[in-house]
Amino acid sequence: MTAKTYAIRTFGCQMNEHDSERIAGLLEADGLVPALDADAADVVVLNTCCIRENADNKLYGTLGHLKTAKEQRPGLEIIVSGCLAQNDREELQRRAGHVDVILGTHNVHRAVELLHQSRETGPVLEIWDEALEEAESFPSALAVRREIDYSAWMSIQIGCDNTCTYCIVPAVRGRELSRPFGELVAEVQRLAADGVHEITLLGQNVNSYGRDLTLARREVGGVDDDVLIAGSLWAADDSRRIRPLFADLLTAVSAVEGIERVRFTSPHPKDLRPETIIAMAENDAVCNHLHLPLQSGSDSILTAMHRGYTAERYLEKLAAARAGIEDLAVSTDIIVGFPGESEDDFERTLAVAADAEFDLAYTFIFSPRDGTVAATYADRFVDPDVVSARFKQLHTVTERSALAKHRARIGRVEEVVVEGVSRRNDQMLSSRTRQNKLLHFASATALRPGTRASVLVTDAGAHYLAGELVEVLAAPRHRTRIPVSAG
Ligand code: SAM
Ligand code: SF4
Questions:
Q1: Which of 125, 193, 257, 462 could form a disulfide with 402 if both were Cys (CB 3.0 to 4.6 A apart)?
Q2: Is the dihedral of CA 16, 21, 23, 24 positive or negative?
Q3: Atom 15, ligand 1: which residue's CA is nearest?
Q4: Which residues of the chain have pLDDT under 50?
Q5: For ligand 2, atom 1, which residue shows the shortest CA distance?
Q6: Do 181 and 252 meet the contact criterion of CB atoms below 8 Å apart?
C-alpha cells in the first residue's frame, strides 16, 4: 500500500519551526512520508503565528486555497496548529469549517491522536489552556524529524513571564516553564552521538532559564547519593536565592563532546547577567553572536512597553558584552510606531540604533494584537504614513551599520559551516560564520552541508559576505539521509 504523504507550512519564528519538526516526527512515526509535491499531500499542516498581523492574513489566504483543493480532493486532511489556533480558536472555526483538526501550542504532541479522532467523529478542536510540566510540553522532548542533520534546535523553556504590553506570546504560550537541566544535557549528548555539532537553545527569555526549577529538576547526574546539582557558578554565593541557570547550561552544553557551535535566542536585555557574558567568552563552542532585542531607543516608550530597562542601560549591557566577548556580532529587534511614539521618541531610537552599530536589525511595524495592553491604546496609534516613513528611515540607519560591519570583515579568514548550495547561484555554496553571518563562496568540489571550512572574505553586502575557500577543516560526522520517496 502506498504511504500517505504530508506537508507542513510554518508561519513565524524558530519556536514554530521546531514545533513543526516535532509534528513531522509524529506523523512519520504514524507511517506518513513527506510529500514531494506539497500541493498533492494527503495531510497538510499549517503551523500558525499571531505575533504580527501579516501572519494571520497569510493563514486565512492559504486556508482559502485549501478549501478549493479539498472540494476537488475530499480525502485531503487539514490540521491547523500553533499560536493563532490557540488565540483565535472561535474565529478560526468560523472561517475554516473545512479544517479537520485545530490544536493549540500546549498539545502539539496530540496531533496524530486528534487526526485519528477526526476520522471517526468529524472536525476536532482541542486547545489546552496551560502546558503540563511533563516532557510532552517541550517540543524537543518527542520524536523530531530534523530538517538539517548537523544542527538541532532545543527548547530549553516554554512560555514567558514578562509583560511586554505589545506582545501576545504570554497569552498564547503561557507561563514560563524550564525543561529539567539533566534532560537537556542528556538530549545534547544523544544529538552529538547522532552527528549533530551545532545546537541552538530556544526560549522567549533564555536568561531566566532555570529560575522555576526545583532542586530535583536541576539534577545533572552523579552516582548514588552523590547527585550533582546545576548551579555551580553560584556555589560561592551564600544568599542561596534561586538563580537562573542559563550560564551553567551554556557551559554544560558546550562541554558535550562533538558540540562545536552553541547558539541561543533570545536573551532579554534586562536579565542579561555578567555570568552569561563570562560563559559566552569562556566556552569556545558558544558562538560570537548575541541577539539582544532593543525594541525602542526612547525611555518613555520602553516604559510604556514594560521592557524594564532604559536606553542607557541597554547600551551599557551591550558595551559589557562587547568588552567581554571577542569579535561579537550583535543583532536586534526594533518596533516602529508603538502607540504614542512621538518624533522625539523616534529620533532617540534612530540615535541608539546608530550608536549600537548593530550587525543586523529585524525591524517591525507595531501591530495591535487583540488581548494585549497596547492594543487598547487606540487613541495613541500613530498615523500609518508617519510610521511607514519612520520605518524607512530606521532601515537606512540599520542597513548602514550592517554594511559597515560586514565590510570590516573583508580580508579576514572565517571559520564556516556549509549550509548547502546557494539559493541565488548554484555555482556557489552558502555557509555560516561563528558570528551567524551568511558567507557565500565558490568551491571546485561539492562540500556536504555540515562541512567545516575556512574561507577568506573578499566582498560584503549589508546581509552577506562573499569569499574564497582556503581549506576544508572537517567533513560532517552525520550520515547522509537516503531520500524517502512516496509510492
Ligand atoms: N521574547 C523575545 C524578546 O523579548 O525579544 C522575542 C519575542 S517576539 C516572538 C519577536 C519580536 O517580534 C519581538 O522582539 C518584537 O520586536 C516583535 N513583536 C512582538 N509583538 C509585536 C507587535 N505587536 N507588533 C510588532 N512587533 C512585535
Ligand atoms: Fe513577548 Fe516580552 Fe516575553 Fe519577549 S519577553 S516573549 S517580547 S512578553
A1: 462
A2: positive
A3: 333
A4: 233-236, 240, 481-487
A5: 167
A6: yes
